Amino acid sequence: MSEQANILPGGGASALPRQLGNRSIVFVGLMGAGKTAIGRKVATALSLPFIDSDHEIEDVSRMTVPELFARYGETEFRALEQRVILRLLENGPQVLSTGGGAYMNAQTRQAIAAHGVSVWLKADLDLLMDRVSKKQNRPLLRNDDPRGVLKRLMDERYPVYAQADVTVVTRDERKETIAAEVIEALCAHLGPVEAAAEGEPQP
Fold this sequence. Notes:
By secondary structure, this protein is an alpha/beta fold. It has 9 helices and 5 strands, in the order H-H-E-H-E-H-H-E-H-E-H-H-E-H. A 5-stranded parallel beta sheet has the order 2-3-1-4-5. Helix 3 (35-46) crosses helix 9. Residues 193-203 have low confidence and may be disordered.
């Protein structure tokens, strides 16, 4: 059985790409939430291209994200990030994973709202710490108290992430399970109202 068949839930999931039109599915959330891993699964299930904004930034700048932070600082990095994401949003439909701070930029949020459907992968502190502690490429966590930094980021960012169109709680579960829940939540969000707006008959 294909990965697509394993993930796609029943109901109107097959209509989801059509309901998206030219919009992108945009994953937001803190580092370690699984935006890239789950985003890839959702993209595969829906036969859509997958783009990681951090990878695009690295391609454009020919530097890694940690190198960009070290050389130019967070403010300059965020400005570059905004420009890259605004350009990427012109290329829907697709699945787009964004960096943890991207959605904090008001202009980026407006662009995502105009050209995409946002999905917040919400995770608790213990899960995030377990995941990010295994990687050394997190510039914001290069600190004597990474757990404290991560908790502060959660306090600052979670109220903003909560503005996303869809929220899915991620946890220590198979990626396919979380991806299926994302697709189900997107179907519920777009639902028959979107179909009616496109002139399709109601079931």
